[in-house]
Design a protein that fits this description.
Blueprint (H helix, E strand, L loop, with lengths): L1 E5 L5 E5 L18 E4 L10 H11 L5 H14 L4 H6 L10 H14 L7 H12 L3 E9 H10 L4 E5 L1 E4 L2 E6 L7 H10 L11 E4 L5 H4 L4 E5 L3 H9 L3 E4 L2
Parallel strand pairs: 1-10, 3-4, 3-8, 4-5, 8-9, 9-10
Antiparallel strand pairs: 1-2, 6-7
Helix pairs in contact: 4-6
Length: 246
């Protein structure tokens, strides 16, 4: 059965028909690894980790107005290509920043701010999966230099964020690889967790957005966290578990 679960003072679940698992092979080797994969923005935390980081940089006096204006200019130039290219994959604000310094600031931000924003019910689920012997992974569109410190704080060895290009020790503002969003997330899962090594049918994934559905469909235990009402209706028809958290 698949479940609709609410983390409230009284924990409750409502069952609905799950996807047919009869087609799954019964000859999978026992050595296959199992995974619990977590999205960050909107899942482990409410809102955007990168926006919180940029706001924190401004408050700390570590970010000048000019990079913000430059990023807005790039966004306007890219807007005809879509909102993802214009905003989510737009990292021009980091152009010229020393990579080591940005990593140090990200480490401070995670320790002082971000780790305290993590949703406890999702952390409890993460630890429960770890206790069950599953390997834990984070997959997010946030910059890798920001995701890395959080992964270390959580004791997570597998973390895939947006890779940032570097030149002579400075960030260029360009990407060094795919931006994990939408179909790219699903492709990253296929490449990083191939069927010969991982049993995704026995694995779990947690995400919050309609753009994550293709990625969630790769897992035997997909969970939508706090979906919109429209997405909730769609989830019920696709055999997704739905987790409601405060």
């Amino acid at each position: 059965m698949a479940f609709l679960c609410a983390w409230t003072p009284s924990y409750s679940c409502w069952s609905r028909p799950s996807r047919d698992s009869s087609a799954r092979s019964t000859t999978l080797p026992e050595s296959l690894r199992r995974l619990a994969l977590f999205d960050l923005d909107g899942t482990l935390i409410a809102g955007s980790s990168e926006r919180r980081f940029l706001r924190w940089l401004l408050e700390q006096g570590e970010l000048r107005p000019w990079p913000v204006l430059r990023a807005l200019g790039v966004a306007l130039w890219r807007l005809p290509r879509g909102r993802t290219a214009a905003f989510k994959a737009n990292k021009a604000i980091y152009r010229g920043q020393p990579a080591a310094w940005m990593e140090e600031l990200a480490e401070r931000f995670v320790g002082e701010e971000l780790r305290w924003r993590l949703r406890q019910p999702l952390l409890d689920r993460l630890e429960a999966h770890r206790d069950e012997g599953l390997e834990i992974a984070l997959l997010s569109g946030t910059p890798e230099f920001l995701l890395g410190p959080l992964a270390r704080a959580l004791g997570v060895e597998i973390a895939v964020g947006t890779p940032m290009a570097r030149l002579l020790g400075k960030l260029t503002g360009s990407l060094a690889g795919p931006h994990p969003y939408g179909a790219a997330k699903a492709e990253i899962v296929r490449e990083r967790f191939p069927a010969e090594d991982w049993d995704l049918e026995a694995s779990y994934a947690y995400a919050d957005h309609a753009s994550d559905l293709e990625m969630l469909a790769l897992f035997g235990h997909p969970h939508l966290v706090n979906p919109s009402r429209r997405l909730l209706a769609r989830a019920k028809g696709e055999g997704l578990d739905v987790d409601l958290v405060d």
